[in-house]
């Protein structure tokens, strides 16, 4: 076992983990952060996307030990003082979900896109989301939501 200390959604946790434990399993099974979901086991779907030191990563592709000493934000850490994050609000207002399974990862990735490019074109949004799959194929409203959040200056 290896001892790690990670800040997740603003709280610091110290735990002993197997060196092979994936970050997504640590988040879900040790910390109970089940808002981050697993859609594949091949790093393809993006459902498990979180932020590691402010940048999006697929948490099924990162070892928990790699997060030692770092800061992780999950979908559960976005709302502040009971207020949804503007990207969450945009997804809600644009009906950018069907079953909702891909939504946590989509939102985390969408926030990351706007960090680099606050005013993306539709093509740039689609390219930025290409690592995130929606089995319900609800891409049109997802792209609309990201554009709406960008327009709102988020
Ligand atoms: S569960 Fe991580 S990419 Fe699919
Ligand atoms: S809304 Fe169902 S997978 Fe995207």
Automatic annotation (TrEMBL):
Q: Short name of one Pfam family for this protein? A: Fer2_2
List the keywords (alphabetical): 2Fe-2S, Iron, Iron-sulfur, Metal-binding, Oxidoreductase
- Domain 2Fe-2S ferredoxin-type stretches: 2-78
Q: Looking at the keywords, is Iron present? A: yes
Provide the protein name: (2Fe-2S)-binding protein
Give the source lineage, highest ranks first. Answer: Bacteria, Bacillati, Actinomycetota, Actinomycetes, Micrococcales
């Amino acid at each position: 076992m290896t001892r790690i200390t990670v800040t997740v959604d603003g709280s610091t946790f110290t735990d002993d983990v197997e060196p092979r434990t994936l970050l997504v399993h640590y988040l879900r099974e040790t910390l109970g952060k089940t808002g981050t979901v697993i859609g594949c086991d091949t790093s393809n779907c993006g459902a498990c996307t979180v932020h590691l030191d402010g940048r999006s990563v697929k948490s099924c592709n990162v070892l928990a030990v790699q997060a030692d000493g770092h800061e992780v934000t999950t979908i559960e850490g976005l709302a502040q003082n009971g207020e949804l994050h503007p990207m969450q609000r945009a997804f809600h207002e644009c009906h950018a979900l069907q079953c909702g399974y891909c939504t946590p990862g989509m939102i985390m990735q969408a926030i990351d896109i706007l960090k680099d490019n606050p005013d993306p074109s539709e093509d740039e949004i689609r390219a930025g989301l290409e690592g995130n799959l929606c089995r319900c194929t609800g891409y049109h409203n997802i792209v609309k939501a990201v554009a709406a959040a960008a327009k709102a200056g988020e």
